[in-house]
Amino acid sequence: MEKSKALQFLINNQSFDPFRIFCIGKNYDEHIKELGGNQRPSEPVVFMKPVSSIVPPEDILFYPCYGAELHHEAEMVLLIGKEGKDISEENAYSHIVGVTLGLDLTLRDVQSKLKKSGLPWELSKSFEQSAPLGHFKAYDSGSIDLENLSFSCCVNGDLRQNGNTGDMIFPIKSLIKALSGWWTLRPGDIIFTGTPSGVGPLKIGDKIEIQNSDIGSFSWEITSS
């Protein structure tokens, strides 16, 4: 496998090095139901991925070397541009500098085994290339409505996921408030905000595309390692 190139995000003539990737689990009711759950979390479910797992659009995406059930989870993704601790909901949007779409790739069979054993999720969520990420668009509240943003995921041209941020259990403002209460958010932090229902399997040879009319369309093809 080729070594990933160092990434930088350029927004409004400012460059941001990716710092951390925060991911939110169980943030859409219908997704909780499709995985066999029936209880809403009382606070955001947070896990992390290494920044080395980012895969830019059109880069080759290799099928993982372990696990047998690779699933796509399309998500709206935020880029933090301003440091903040204990950020209020009223000020949350002022810390966002970019918006895009991404994939939280998940080895579902590995995750199921880990859950049954009460073990952490890293092996199922934080493997190599587990965070395909679109190009960030500068956040402008006049053109991007974070509370009503629709996005879709297609595999080989077939619609798999069709979500809207308005259906989130914990909306963007709540997520930023919660995360900044646990960590000091810093420029370059990336937040995957959770996936809607419709997650499903991927196989070698598949082309996966995620899209929003205001942000753009991003795709990857899966090949053997």
Describe this structure in words.
This protein has 225 residues and is mainly beta. The chain has a single domain (15-223), classed as Fumarylacetoacetate hydrolase, domain 2. Helices cover 13% and strands 34% of the residues. The chain contains 4 helices and 18 strands. The protein has helices at 29-34, 108-116, 122-125, 172-182; strands at 9-11, 14-16, 21-25, 45-49, 54-55, 61-62, 70-72, 74-80, 96-103, 106-107, 131-132, 137-138, 150-155, 158-164, 190-192, 200-202, 207-212, 216-223. A 6-stranded mixed sheet has the order 4-3-15-8-9-12, with no helix packed on it. A 5-stranded mixed sheet has the order 6-18-17-13-14, with no helix packed on it. Strands 10-7-16 form a 3-stranded antiparallel sheet. The longest helix is centred in the last third of the chain and has 11 residues, at 172-182.
